[in-house]
Write a structure and sequence with these properties.
mainly beta; 4-stranded antiparallel beta sheet; single chain
């Protein structure tokens, strides 16, 4: 009798902070119970049936059905509809009487499918068996007595990978299905895992994936075209890294999931060029099965999420997350995403298929997004709770001076101060004394202080020091200074203006941070300091020097040093997490230094090319990392403050250096966020920042409310009339931006001059699909957003 597995929808609530402009496009829909350890899902190209193969449970891996064990099973997933709601059921169709054969030490199930005859070939211990996919019965239980780890169909042949034992050189057997004879064996590498049969410009071709000796970083792909099945060699080889586990072919390229190195390697079989995409996973939670669809690479991970890599830009998105499960493989079916949870977070066998549904709910909600105009190259910002506004500092360029701006809660920007030409440094790392309303700014060859209320010089020359970064330590100012081969942090007494001591700061000092550390059993915090620097003057390897200030500010040294990647650029401290965080540019990483034991954990951001990280921002148990990939990547830690998860990605339209936030009075909600964007996405200078108002209660009702500006669209031909009823608009410059329903920027129309407070536009709707959009009208100071529907 067939078994049915059904489970109502599971809702997973991960985080309460609202995130507009998010790329998250799936929401939890349903979970299905299956047999233990679901490891493979496939959709029949003939009748559309979704097949799921479960490896069962062999607790002690002895190949015997002991008490508590379960044999493998074969299920199908069917779709039903009730009252307009789609749901799914899992029905068991076949229970096997022995365990599947896997590559040594890895439960990766690789059957071969003959869709022309609806037959699946499955490797068992010492034998290949064939099963009918229509009748769900045995087709041939003795196809070949070969102890294969994987099966692939190649016309009238089976490609069988065979490994004699762990860390032994394997082979590829070519089995003729008509004669049952092995036509030839091709030598593989140690621990061969998989083969792929594909068509290239040179003809029929084969690729083999070998793990190499376990624990070593020498997994290999052998590939090439063949003349016939009787005699061929695979002449091309690529070393892909540590513990590769899955390989596919798509559109002239092989894609290899490299679990140990947390990356996907792309191999162009025509040009032999390779590219690497880092997934941002860590520890033993790397990438698993993969597939390509519409220019995007979907990656199942043991981190408990699905990641999507844009093959054109290299940008990584997290589209679905259930962090208590480990996903081996995934499948898309219309608007649904099926994720096979092979194990739970403790690596015990799981028995769930988790289904997410593509959602068209706009991420804006009631958020207001604006693009206030500021000076050229905004580089730093700070939210001032006393004045309830953002301070923004801009570098300028060769002809325009640096400037200081404010942005109020309505998004209105005002130029408050102009600095001497070329006097601000990049990156911009001042020290802010909010209590005394002073900001200390490092200029070329001197440090000056400014009043945050009057926007005027407080002291034009605190010290004649050419600092690259500043921080406050009580009544002392810490200044990081680069000298030839002997960098220092100078401790300045702000009361006397005199230096108290120099602290050695390695080579090419980049940043510094004064912080208080709490130790178990000690109610008093320990004052401490961290210095970000390089290990060698001419090298790119960076290090963090940190530790307690044991005596006083006049004499101390830092006891601890840890490596923090290549060309590190920013350093922050999280009081909540009791950790230091460092970003490094050349290896695109986020490093967390746990102050409880001085250990370090590094996480790849998943950016490439010029997508360097900007200054991270710590918020409770989350870390926000802006990047020059024109996005922001948010990370969260588990309940034990141990595992870093890539939670989400906010897709924006400019390269981002820094984030500032306005929190609610309870400090539990974000009222607004400001993204400092020195460059456009193409690298040209920017003169605007991005302001997002998340909590609508933080925006006062005023004459600039969007409801006073009337929009009259004709959705059938794209004509649009906008009446601007607020006389405070700058009518000499109006900009219109269009976003799709997921907050992704579509296009903009600039330099529009209204006539009698009215704008008449013709939108290029030939490039747009019918649906919901958002339109933002801005003059650089006032900016409002509201829905827009396009019908074609």
């Amino acid at each position: 009798m067939a078994k049915f597995y059904y489970f109502a929808a599971i809702l997973v609530i991960l985080i309460v902070v609202a995130m507009p402009l998010s790329s998250q496009q799936y929401s939890p829909h349903q979970a299905l119970y299956t047999g233990y350890t679901p490891v493979h899902i496939v959709k029949s190209p003939n009748d559309g049936t979704i097949h799921v193969f479960c490896a069962g449970k062999d607790a002690n891996y002895n190949g015997q059905l002991d008490e508590g064990d379960e044999y493998p099973s074969w299920l199908i997933i069917t779709e039903t509809e009730f009252d307009g709601e789609i749901s799914f059921e899992a029905e068991e169709k076949f229970e096997f009487d022995s365990f599947f054969k896997f590559p040594s030490g890895v439960e990766i199930f690789r059957p071969g499918f003959d869709w022309a005859n609806d037959v699946v070939y499955i490797p068992f211990d010492g034998v290949i068996k064939a099963f009918d996919m229509i009748d769900f019965d045995i087709h041939d239980d003795q196809v070949a007595f070969i102890n294969a780890t994987s099966v692939a169909l190649a016309g009238g042949h089976l490609l069988l990978t065979v490994t004699p034992g762990a860390d032994q050189v394997g082979k590829l057997d070519v089995l003729n299905l008509t004669s049952g004879q092995v036509l030839q064996s091709v030598t593989a590498k140690e621990n061969v895992m998989q083969s792929v049969y594909y068509q290239s410009s040179k003809g029929i071709s084969i690729a083999m994936l070998s793990n190499g000796p376990y624990g070593e970083s020498n997994g290999v792909v052998q590939y090439g075209a063949i003349n016939h099945m009787f005699n061929f060699d695979l002449e091309d080889e690529v070393v892909v890294g540590k513990s590769p586990n899955h390989m596919i072919f798509n559109n002239g390229k092989l894609y290899v999931s490299v679990n140990g190195d947390h990356k996907i390697v792309e191999i162009d079989v025509e040009t032999h060029e390779t590219r690497t995409f880092y997934t941002g996973t860590i520890a033993f939670n790397g990438p698993r099965d993969i597939f390509v669809s519409e220019g995007k690479l979907y990656v199942a991970t043991y981190q408990g999420d699905v990641r999507v890599i844009n093959l054109e830009t290299g940008c990584v998105e997290v589209i679905s997350s259930e962090y208590t499960r480990k996903f081996e493989t995934i499948l898309t079916q219309n608007e649904y995403l099926f994720k096979l949870a092979s194990y739970d977070d403790s690596y015990a066998s799981s028995n769930l298929v988790i289904i997410s549904k593509f959602t068209d709910e706009p991420p804006f909600d009631e958020s207001i997004v604006s693009y206030p105009l500021v000076g050229i190259r905004p580089t730093g910002s700070y939210y001032d709770y006393e004045q309830e506004l953002y301070h923004v500092f801009c570098l300028g360029d060769d002809s325009q001076s640096p400037s200081w701006w404010t942005i109020d809660k309505e998004g209105v920007s005002t130029n408050k101060y102009t600095f001497p030409l070329g006097s601000l440094k990049e990156p911009f790392k001042p020290a802010i004394d909010g209590e005394n309303r002073i900001i200390y700014i490092p200029h070329n060859n001197y440090i000056a202080s400014y009043n945050l209320d009057d926007f005027a010089i407080d002291d034009p020359e605190i010290a004649q020091i050419d600092a690259v970064a500043l921080d406050l330590a009580g009544s002392h100012l810490l200044a990081a200074v680069q000298f030839d081969g002997a960098d220092s942090v100078i401790v300045l007494n702000l009361q006397t203006g005199l230096p108290m001591q120099r602290v050695y700061a390695g080579m090419n000092v980049r940043d510094l941070k004064y912080y208080t550390q709490f130790e178990e059993g000690n109610p008093k915090p320990t004052i401490s300091m961290a210095i970000l620097t390089d290990k060698e003057e001419s090298g790119s390897e960076s290090q963090l020097m940190f530790g307690a200030i044991k005596q006083n500010m006049e004499f101390f040294t830092l006891d601890n040093t840890v490596d923090v990647g290549l060309n590190a650029n920013h350093l922050i401290f999280s009081q909540t997490l009791q950790s230091l965080f460092v970003t490094s540019k050349d290896d695109y990483s986020l490093h967390q230094i746990f102050l409880t034991d001085n250990s370090i954990k590094s996480t790849r951001l998943g950016t490439i090319g010029a997508g360097y990280p900007g200054k991270p921002y710590a918020l409770l148990h989350m870390i926000w990392v802006p990047t020059y990939n024109s996005d922001v990547r948010t990370f969260t830690l588990d309940a034990f403050n141990q595992q870093v998860y890539l939670e989400d990605i906010l897709i924006l339209r400019h390269q981002i250096e820094q984030i500032s936030m306005q929190m609610s009075s309870s400090m539990q909600m974000i009222n607004s966020m400001l993204f400092v964007t020195p460059y456009e996405s193409d690298g040209s200078y920017s003169s605007e920042v991005i302001l997002i108002g998340i909590n609508p209660s933080s925006v006062e009702t005023n004459p600039r409310n969007v409801n006073n500006d009337l929009i009259y669209p004709n959705p059938t031909n794209g004509s649009l009339a906008i009446v601007l009823n607020d006389d405070r608009y700058n009518m000499s410059y109006i900009r219109v931006d269009i976003f799709n329903q997921f907050g992704k920027f579509v296009f903009s129309l600039e330099n529009i001059i209204p006539s009698n407070n009215m704008i008449n536009l013709l939108l290029p709707i030939e490039n747009l699909a019918s649906g919901a959009y958002y339109i933002t009208v801005s003059d650089g100071r006032i900016s409002k957003t509201q829905p827009l529907t396009i019908v074609k």
